[in-house]
Amino acid sequence: MTQSGTTSKEELTGACLCGAVRITVAGAYDPRPGACHCRMCQRWSGGLFLCFEAQPEAVTVTGEVARFRSSAFAERAFCPACGSHLWMRDGEGAYDLMPGLFDEMRSAPLRSEIYVDQAMAAVQLKGDHPTATRAVYEAKNNFVEGDA
Ligand SMILES: [Zn+2]
Ligand SMILES: [Zn+2]
């Protein structure tokens, strides 16, 4: 999900709803969240999935984390106490972190939007950010066959 061009060095500290999991992001990361409307992300997020990318060396996590392997290539992590979603990650690659955990991310603009043709009627985003339909995205990226 990398679309380079913007990086930040500001340190971010985030927490889940109950506070048991804390995440610090220190180092280069893209401070703009991207949106995904694929069927898996709709099920997991409840509607609109947002994440921003940070390299593994920039991310420090404390507290117990539960992981669900949602596909052959990706895991989705959450707090086992309160259920807050924490990140999605392909193998040992970059973290796609949930922006809502971090106060600073509330003012971050949208980076991009994928699976736009699959978006729920209630979640139609406006703006001139880059977008990709399911067909365009799946032509260039890993994806899960079927339920998307
Ligand atoms: Zn929690
Ligand atoms: Zn998705």
Notes on the structure:
This protein is mainly beta and 148 residues long. It has one domain: Beta Complex (Metal Binding Protein, Guanine Nucleotide Exchange Factor, Chain A). 8% of the residues lie in helices and 30% in strands. The chain contains two helices and eleven strands. The strands form two sheets. An eight-stranded mixed sheet has the order 6-7-8-9-4-3-10-11. The protein is globular. The structure holds zinc ion (2 copies). One zinc ion binds next to loops. The site of one zinc ion has 9 residues, from loops.
Which SSEs are present, and which pair or pack?
Blueprint: E1 12-15, E2 22-25, E3 34-36, H1 39-45, E4 49-54, E5 59-62, E6 66-69, E7 74-78, E8 85-90, E9 95-97, E10 112-114, E11 131-132, H2 134-138
Parallel strand pairs: 3-10, 10-11
Antiparallel strand pairs: 1-2, 2-5, 3-4, 4-9, 6-7, 7-8, 8-9
The chain binds zinc ion (2 copies).
One zinc ion is lined by residues 36, 38, 40-41, 49.
Report the top-level CATH class: Mainly Beta
Question: What sort of overall outline do the alpha carbons produce when their principal axes are compared?
Answer: globular
- Determine the fraction of residues in helical runs and give it as a percent range: under 10%
Mean residue pLDDT:
91
The strand order across the widest sheet is 6-7-8-9-4-3-10-11
Poorly predicted runs: none
- Number of beta-strand segments: 11
Radius of gyration from the alpha-carbon trace, in angstroms: 15 Å
- What fold name stands as the CATH topology? Metal Binding Protein, Guanine Nucleotide Exchange Factor, Chain A
Q: How far apart lie the N and C ends?
A: 17 Å
Number of helices: 2
SS-derived structural category: mainly beta
> Main beta sheet: strand number and arrangement?
8 strands, mixed
Number of domains: 1
Order of helices and strands: EEEHEEEEEEEEH
